[in-house]
Amino acid sequence: MIRTTLEQVITEEMAEIWQLLSNEEKRLVMDNFVIHNYKKNQIIYAEKDEPEFLWCLLEGKVKKYKDGVGNRVQILRLIKPVEYFGYRAYFAREPYVSSAATLEPSRIGSLPMTLVEQLMKNNNNLAMFFIHELSRNLGSSDTKIVNLTQKHIRARLAEALMVLRDNYGYESDDNLTLKIYMAREDLANLSNMTTANAIRTLTLFVNEKLIVVDGRKIKILNEPELRKISKFG
Question: Taking the complete model, does pTM exceed 0.70, yes or no?
Answer without folding.
Answer: yes
